[in-house]
Amino acid sequence: MKHRLPAILVGAASLLVVARASGQTAPGYRYTFTFSGDGTDPVSGTTWAAGTRSRIDIDGQSDPQYILVDNAAHTLILVYPQRQEYSVVSDTTFQRLVGTVLASLPVVNITLSDTQVSDTALGAGETIAGHPTDRYQVTQAFTVSVGAFGFQAVGMRQRVTTQYWMARDLKLPSNPLVTLLSQLTTVLAQSDRDFAHRSAVALRPVARGTPLRVVVHSETKSGDKNEVTQRTQTLQVTSIAPATVDLSRFAVPAGYTQKDPQFNGKIF
Length: 268
What we know:
The chain is an alpha+beta fold. The chain has one domain. It is 19% helix and 48% strand. Strands 1, 2, 3, 4, 5, 6, 7, 8, 9, 10, 11, 12 and 13 form a 13-stranded mixed beta sheet that branches. Helix 2 (91-104) runs parallel beside helix 3 (176-184).
């Protein structure tokens, strides 16, 4: 399924290609992170951040790519050096893509019931990568059933508890991988507008701050069985330091071809 981009996003991407920033630098930060958890291979990466923009490089990929983030323009650009291609999506589209696609299919009917969303400040957390933190927790619970071709599956009960360690003394451009990790487990529920709104309200403190660790724990009870499947995934900042950032890192290389975004269901 191809996703057509609004003209303003195409224009923003074109400006990034044309407006070369070679030789220009700005004060910013360089930080490294890891992602690990049940059912996934460990992943590491590096982020360069300056002002409202950042670049996220993921290590060890068979199809290398990096992500350019512009929080002021609310855009993400996925760049594929080997193919010399790039794709542009809005940050909202990136975060809720799977749920939006499922909800738009005429043969798929997603029904949500018994929803609960709560948030709790947990007080001081430990120091991470040299920065003091405060802990924050969001709990989301719901029953979801998915129907297709006239059949409705038995409801699946899910409870997702996400804890954030928020830096007290640091404000960096928001990392879309943090939001994606936070929402990936609830992706079916994100198609429900009320649930998505309540979740967005609970996550406002996270959106305004800089998480240095995110731990997502999910419990899923499928159908009429009493068995509960549990899964935990963690995104952790491992080091962070001030850095002089070459602004050419935030520009799409000249000569690259824009393509419609294609997603294969993987985080990276």
